[in-house]
Each structure stands twice: as structure tokens, then as C-alpha cells.
């Protein structure tokens, strides 16, 4: 079936006559700053007596006349003045929705975000708001101005005011009138102090956060995730556009070419051949190589590519005393499979091709579920492990799920993971309550067991599968990040030497500020790789746009090594909270484009769809998920890096391939492991008390 791709962009017309704006050197009432990066020749000419080189900004009231003040008619061909026109449109956009009494804020990338009150989902404790963002751009995908309309999720605003909340430390962001503010903001400027002093606490309402909700006894519900995010997203932006944007007063600001989201231009769409994502599994008994596109199907009929490098594997359990009677049932299901008519999991040995036995002498039980670590340490010190001959895996039956109220309870598994990692033992957490429910529902339980078996196989050093197409000698380095919201601190981690077959070698992690250490470790990985193999190129997958300050020491290091191989930087972003998506109207209303579809959305910037929907596939299971595309920006410090027209396709293909190597779950991921694995490390490792042991930096214990 021929695809029909639409995107969340509305075309609007260029103005018949460019607006005339009024300028002033002083910040007067009703004025807006114009940053010095927008100082055009025309602006400099209307202030002949002022030295603008010493000013960071001047001011404008846009089209509101200032007596005796200079004015300019914006030249929309001039890049600087086009940016002022964009600023003017954003001002008009904010003013329009504020005049309708809606909450209007900036989203995390500085675009206009509007909060629309929900008619459903409100409770006595909070009111629900749907959030929509606008991004304005000019002739990126078409030859007209473009308004991108995106859905940013929901927020719950409490009905209890700041005045009536006793513990102010739990209050984070609040709604105040038509704006939001951070209650815990630093009062380090006169402007912030003035704003804070003017707040009427009985009119400020906190936005829902877990700690505050628990303190106020607000019921915490596990979020209901839509089966198909595309359907919800597209329905919401279409309804929003119909009800609020395709109105005559709004179209005075944005005169739409048509009242509909645009089709993706055909010359911007291309496809990666699905066969480059082919995966290699274990050979059959006759030595024949076995390949497959879909791990979920392959693992039912093929063996993993490579077993852990030890024939002797033992499993033991850690659990609360009250849960030890459930251990046997769980172990029997893990080891022998499930009892259900449709049996896709026939046991650990059958599924991941390893022999494993229980190690009853290492069983650990504890009595204090809120502080089990002292008991576990005491028991651990009395145990003996035969690390020379045996690989061990510990299953921890956690009494707490990830939504548990006490944050200290959520940290117990991290402490256990570190404790056993220091002993050279990998761990797997099992949510006890969910396990008990699943044991009753054997059909569903088998899918959890599949993922656990897969992860344990990889944690023990096995390789469930690898890329089958490996014709390049490339060093691929991934850098991911995780922000600890409690600390308001970001950690970064890097995963090195994914090579051309996708097999992982080593990782490091750092505080966000330690960019020199990150650069040094990247240079070391390049040196180690090139000392044993000739690389065609070095590719860095980065979780954000790499700054020159971050890139400079890497370039310097490559020059020091005398390497003249090309360096490519791929900035890879998830789009769940980003601006632009695309969807296929010709796929049974499921909307997700075919896997491998990529769209050029601007110069060297692309949307790439990574999913399990392949061309000509007759059936698609909802359990395979509907991941959104990722946004990729390709750059290089080398002047001739893009002379070869095929290099961009090669780089996108590499991202596509690396998204197929995730070993924590059988579900297809949209983000490559070069970003995903470092993000997981950055989430866990900084919470260890003594860091990650050196001998664990080449293992996948974090899965």
C-alpha cells in the first residue's frame, strides 16, 4: 500500500506587507528586548549616534508606535530581521491566548506553550490541563512559513493553594494567574525578589508532584499509557486545531494556506532497506548461519548468537521472609517454562540456550523490608562463592514497585545491585506483587520471563544477537544522559567501541561539568581502537547538540594521535516531548510510518522511524509498540565530510541498526543503544556509594 505521510505542520502565508516596528534604546513599558545577534544593518542605521557594539540588546514595542522613536519596515529576506519577525509572531501568539484567559508559558526549548483546561479527568484534588506547543519556522519543509503544533502531554494543577500547604519544601512549580513559576527559584536578582514578594499565596496553585501528592494524601494512580501514541497525539492536535486555530480571529495572525496539516513533500521522504537491520543469531547444528529481522520471533525458533563464557551458571534468590514461599514457583517457571496453551517460553535453557541451576546454599532472606541491607551484608559475608568456575546471578524479589511512596525504599535495589556487583555478581529485580499476579496468569507471565531471561543472558556476558551486515570498520561512541530530578543534576555516560557489529566494549560516566574527562575518555577509546584496527570513520552519537567546547578537546586529541580519519557527530533526540512528527494515513488508522522511513526536515536534520512495522507485513501486534521517531542532526568538524553523497544514508543506517541491539526487552526501541545504554548507566551508577568496579565497566549489569 502506498504511504501517505502527513506532519503536524500548518502552512501560513507571507504577509502582503512586512510589519513596521518601533525601536528604542531604553527598556520602556510594553517593550521587548532584541538581542544583539539580531542587530541588522538597517537597525544600526536608524541609531547613527549610538554605539550598538557595546549593547547586548535594544528594545521594541513591535507595531505599537513610540512618539519620536525610529522605526524600520522589517526586511524578511534579511536573516536577522526574519528572526525579529518570528519574535513578533510569538508575541502575537502569546497575546492571543492570554486574551482568551488561558495559561501561556515557555516550554523547555523556549517555544510558546498553551495549557487547555480538560473537561474530563478533573478531581476534587486537581484540575487537568492539556499542553500544546507552537514552533515557528520559515521554509524548512516547504517554501512558506510553517507553524508546528505539538502535543506536550498533561499537567495536574492542585486545587489546594500554596497558602494551605504546610511543608513548603515539597512545593515545586506552581500556576499563578496565566503563568507558571518555580516556588524554589533562587532569589538572586532584584526582579525575582520583586516577583516573589508580590505573589498572593492563596492564588498560587502547585503543579502535581509525587512528594507533594503523598503529603496531601492525593491518590497516586499508575499512568495509563495509550496503546498507540500516534492515534492519541494526532486526534488531539486535530481537535485543537479545529476548535482553536482554524478560527477567523486566529487566522488574522496566521493566515493558513489551507485549514489542514500538510503532507510531507515526497522529495523529503526516503527509506532504509530493512535488510540492513538483519540480525545474526546462533548457528544451527550443521554450522549454518541463522538470521532474522525480528528478535521477538527469532528467539522462539533460534539460539542466541553467543553464550556467556562459562559453562557453569548458578541462580540464587534474595527476598523478604514472608515471600520465600513464592520463590519455588517463580524459579520453576523461570527454569522450566509456563503452563499455558500458547507457550512461547519453554524455560531458560530452551529460550536462551544456557544451562543454569539453583544455588540453594546462597539463598538470602531478610526480615526488615525497609532496611534489609545490614542483614544481607551479614549473610553475604558468611557465604563462599566459586568465581573461578561459576557465574552467579541473583534475583531480588522487591517488596516495592517503582511507584512506592518512600524514595528510600526505591533506592534499596540500587544498594543491592552495587553490593553484589562488588562481589562480581549480577542481579535481576523482580517486583514481588506483579510476580504473584503474573504467576496466576501464566500466559502474560511468559513475556516477563522472556525479557528476564534475555537480560540475564546479556548481563552474564552472552550476546543474544548481533548485526548480520558488518562491512564497515567504524568506531561508534555513544554518549547519553540522565537528569536526577531530586538533585536537579545531570549525569552523562559514554559507551565505547560498538564497532561495526554492534557489540559493546566499555563505558565510563561523569558529572555533566566534567567535559574534559569525557573528551579524554573518548580520545582514549579512539586510540585503543585505532591501535589494533584501521577505522574508516569515527562516529559519536550524542544525546544533545554537541557544543564547540565539548568538541574542541576531541579534535585536538585526534590531531595529537595523527589521525586523519573523518569525525561525525550525530545529535540524537527522542521526540516524545519534541516538536515535529509524521504519520501515515494509509495504514489501517494505526498511523505509524514503516520502519526505516526517514524525512529530511531541514539541512542535515532528519526524522528517523525505528519500529517493528516492515514493508508488506500482513499483521502487526499492538504489543510491538508504536514508538515515535527520533530526530537526528548530522554534523562534522571536517570541511569535506559530506562530499560523498552516500555518507548521510550510511550514518542514518548505522543509527537504525543500533536501535535493534537492545537486550533488556524484546520490544523494538526507537533510540539506538549508543544513547540508551549510557542513559541507563547515568541513571544508576552515580547513585552507587563507591562507583562502578573497574572490572564491571565492560559488562551490561545495568540492563
From TrEMBL:
Residues 392-690 form the Piwi domain. Pfam families: Piwi. Transmembrane segments: none annotated. InterPro entries: Piwi, RNaseH-like_sf, RNaseH_sf. PROSITE patterns: PIWI. Belongs to the argonaute family. Long pAgo subfamily. This is Protein argonaute. It comes from Olleya sediminilitoris.
Amino acid at each position: 500500500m502506498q504511504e501517505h505521510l502527513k506532519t503536524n505542520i500548518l502552512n501560513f502565508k507571507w504577509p502582503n506587507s512586512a510589519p513596521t516596528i518601533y525601536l528604542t534604546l531604553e527598556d520602556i513599558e510594553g517593550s521587548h528586548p532584541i538581542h544583539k545577534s539580531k542587530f541588522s544593518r538597517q537597525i544600526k542605521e536608524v541609531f547613527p549616534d549610538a554605539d550598538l557594539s557595546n549593547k547586548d540588546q535594544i528594545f521594541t514595542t513591535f507595531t505599537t508606535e513610540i512618539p519620536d522613536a525610529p522605526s524600520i519596515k522589517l526586511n524578511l529576506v534579511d536573516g536577522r530581521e526574519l528572526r525579529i519577525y518570528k519574535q513578533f509572531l510569538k508575541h502575537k501568539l502569546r497575546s492571543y491566548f492570554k486574551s482568551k484567559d488561558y495559561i501561556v508559558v515557555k516550554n523547555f526549548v523556549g517555544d510558546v506553550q498553551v495549557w487547555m483546561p480538560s473537561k474530563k479527568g478533573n478531581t476534587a484534588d486537581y484540575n487537568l490541563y492539556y499542553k500544546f506547543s507552537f514552533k515557528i519556522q520559515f521554509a524548512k519543509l516547504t517554501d512558506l512559513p510553517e507553524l508546528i503544533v505539538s502535543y506536550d502531554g498533561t499537567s495536574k494543577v492542585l486545587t489546594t493553594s500554596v497558602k494551605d500547604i504546610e511543608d513548603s519544601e515539597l512545593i515545586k512549580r506552581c500556576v499563578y494567574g496565566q503563568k507558571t513559576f518555580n516556588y524554589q527559584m533562587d532569589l538572586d536578582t532584584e526582579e525575582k525578589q520583586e516577583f516573589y514578594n508580590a505573589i498572593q499565596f492563596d492564588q498560587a496553585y502547585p503543579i502535581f508532584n509525587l512528594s507533594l501528592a503523598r503529603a496531601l494524601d492525593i491518590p497516586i494512580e499508575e499512568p495509563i499509557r495509550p496503546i498507540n501514541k500516534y492515534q492519541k497525539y494526532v486526534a488531539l492536535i486535530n481537535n485543537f486545531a479545529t476548535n482553536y486555530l482554524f478560527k477567523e480571529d486566529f487566522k488574522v495572525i496566521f493566515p493558513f494556506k489551507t485549514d489542514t496539516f500538510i503532507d510531507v513533500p515526497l522529495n523529503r521522504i526516503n527509506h532504509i532497506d530493512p535488510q540492513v537491520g538483519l540480525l545474526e543469531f546462533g548457528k544451527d547444528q550443521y554450522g549454518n548461519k541463522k538470521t532474522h529481522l525480528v528478535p521477538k520471533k527469532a528467539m522462539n525458533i533460534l539460539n542466541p548468537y553467543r553464550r556467556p563464557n562459562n559453562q557453569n551458571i548458578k541462580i540464587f534468590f534474595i527476598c523478604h521472609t514472608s515471600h520465600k514461599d513464592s520463590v519455588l514457583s517463580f524459579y520453576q517457571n523461570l527454569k522450566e517454562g509456563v503452563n499455558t496453551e500458547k507457550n512461547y517460553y519453554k524455560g531458560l535453557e530452551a529460550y536462551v540456550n544456557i544451562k543454569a541451576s539453583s544455588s540453594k546454599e546462597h539463598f538470602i532472606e531478610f526480615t526488615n523490608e525497609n532496611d534489609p541491607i545490614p542483614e544481607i551484608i551479614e549473610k553475604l559475608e558468611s557465604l563462599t562463592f566459586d568465581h573461578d568456575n561459576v557465574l552467579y546471578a541473583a534475583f531480588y524479589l522487591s517488596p516495592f514497585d517503582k511507584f512506592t511512596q518512600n524514595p528510600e525504599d526505591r533506592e534499596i535495589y540500587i544498594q543491592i545491585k552495587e553490593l553484589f556487583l562488588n562481589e562480581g555478581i549480577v542481579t535481576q529485580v523482580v517486583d514481588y506483587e506483579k510476580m504473584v499476579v503474573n504467576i496466576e496468569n501464566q500466559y502474560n507471565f511468559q513475556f516477563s520471563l522472556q525479557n528476564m531471561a534475555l537480560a540475564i543472558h546479556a548481563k552474564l556476558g552472552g550476546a543474544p544477537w548481533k548485526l548480520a551486515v558488518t562491512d564497515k570498520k567504524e568506531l561508534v561512541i555513544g554518549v547519553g544522559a540522565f537528569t536526577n530530578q531530586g538533585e536537579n543534576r545531570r549525569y552523562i555516560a559514554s559507551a565505547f567501541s560498538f564497532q561495526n557489529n554492534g557489540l559493546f566494549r566499555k563505558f565510563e560516566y561523569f558529572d555533566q561539568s566534567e567535559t574534559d574527562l569525557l573528551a579524554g575518555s573518548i580520545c582514549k577509546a579512539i586510540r585503543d581502537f585505532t591501535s589494533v584496527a584501521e577505522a574508516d570513520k569515527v562516529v559519536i552519537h550524542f544525546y544533545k547538540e554537541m557544543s564547540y567546547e565539548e568538541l574542541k578537546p576531541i579534535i585536538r586529541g585526534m590531531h595529537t594521535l595523527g589521525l586523519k580519519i573523518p569525525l561525525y557527530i550525530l545529535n540524537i533526540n527522542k521526540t516524545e516531548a519534541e516538536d515535529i512528527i509524521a504519520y501515515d494515513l494509509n495504514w489501517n488508522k494505526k498511523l505509524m510510518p514503516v520502519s526505516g522511513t526517514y524525512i529530511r526536515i531541514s539541512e542535515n536534520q532528519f526524522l528517523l522511524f525505528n519500529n517493528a512495522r516492515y514493508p508488506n507485513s500482513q499483521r502487526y501486534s499492538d504489543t510491538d509498540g508504536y514508538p515515535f521517531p527520533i530526530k537526528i542532526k548530522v554534523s562534522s568538524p571536517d570541511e569535506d565530510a559530506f562530499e560523498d553523497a552516500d555518507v548521510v544514508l550510511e550514518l542514518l543506517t548505522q543509527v537504525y541498526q543500533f536501535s535493534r541491539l537492545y537486550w533488556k526487552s524484546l520490544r523494538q526501541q526507537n533510540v539506538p543503544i549508543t544513547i540508551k545504554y549510557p542513559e541507563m548507566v547515568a541513571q544508576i551508577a552515580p547513585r552507587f556509594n563507591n562507583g562502578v568496579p573497574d572490572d564491571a565497566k565492560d559488562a551490561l549489569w545495568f540492563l
